Amino acid sequence: MTETLAAGRASARRNRLLGSIYARNANSVMARGVLATRSTNWLVVVSGFFEPIFYLLSMGLGLGALVGTVTTTNGDEVSYAAFIAPALLAVAAMNGAIYDSTWNVFFKMQFSKLYEGMLSTSLGPLDVALGEISLALLRGALYGVGFMVVMQFLGLNLSWWALLALPAVVLIAFAFASFGMAVTSYMTTFQQMDWINFVLLPMFLFSATFYPITVYPEPIQLVVMALPLWHGVELIRGLTTGTVDAGTAWHVLYYLVMIVIGMVFTTKRLTTLFLD
């Protein structure tokens, strides 16, 4: 009986438009994650929201009183708080997305064996990838929206372009979530997972988050400009300060490519692990 059901599911996968990878039911994966978060680790999710706010209050308002104004890469002078706030908004989107798409995915994959159970049903690997990434995207977007409200309350949104910072936050979260899950699918031990924090910390500190990129020598600037967080910082900073130019489109394109690469690698990896 079990073999008959498995054969039926396999046949159903082959007959779908995208073959065995997509059943158009990613919503069920996301709904399951929302219910699990609400019942178990909602406090962890809420606590993560306050971290960038604490940085903003302590450094933007506290240290900002000593720093005064900062000149952006486009030559505009803004208060220090208005300079670092959009950077911290990008960090909030990144952190919310990356935590869900790395540690949570690692546990589900390596310990609870949740994906094996999901893929024994009619769900395909693309359903699982989209569902988990959407869940991480939701967390990143919530962090971003909440931080955006704080910025508005403090008067740190300096342009009407700041309204586009909200979809930009979603784009950043989507990119980090898809790429984070792709990387995590290759991790097998906690020691390997520590490399994620090893990469995130310097990216947070050196992606022109707290000072302009021009303080670095030119070779170092090129390295920083290759980092994904720098593109998010520049994208959000340009929108909140009203500095929108051709570079804005380049930052968006960078994240679109990042999303595609992450989705492709995640889907292929899940297929290799659980279906081949």
Helix content: over 70%
Overall outline: elongated
Structural class: mainly alpha
Strand content: under 5%
Q: In whole angstroms, how far apart are the ends? A: 22 Å
Mean pLDDT: 84
* Number of discrete helical segments: 10
Order of helices and strands: HHEEHHHHHHHH
Number of domains: 1
Whole-angstrom Rg: 20 Å
| Unreliable residue stretches | 1-8, 13-17
Task: Report the strand count.
Answer: 2
Biggest sheet: strand arrangement: 1-2
The biggest sheet amounts to:
2 strands, antiparallel
What does this structure look like?
The chain has a two-stranded antiparallel ribbon with strand order 1-2. The protein has one domain (2-274). Helix content is 76%, strand content 2%. The protein is built from ten helices and two strands, in the order H-H-E-E-H-H-H-H-H-H-H-H. The chain has helices spanning 2-14, 26-67, 80-110, 114-119, 125-153, 165-184, 190-206, 218-225, 228-241, 246-274, and strands at residues 69-71, 77-79. With 276 residues, it is mainly alpha-helical. The relative contact order is 0.14. Helix 2 (26-67) runs parallel beside helix 5 (125-153), helix 3 packs across helix 9 and helix 9 packs antiparallel against helix 10 (246-274).
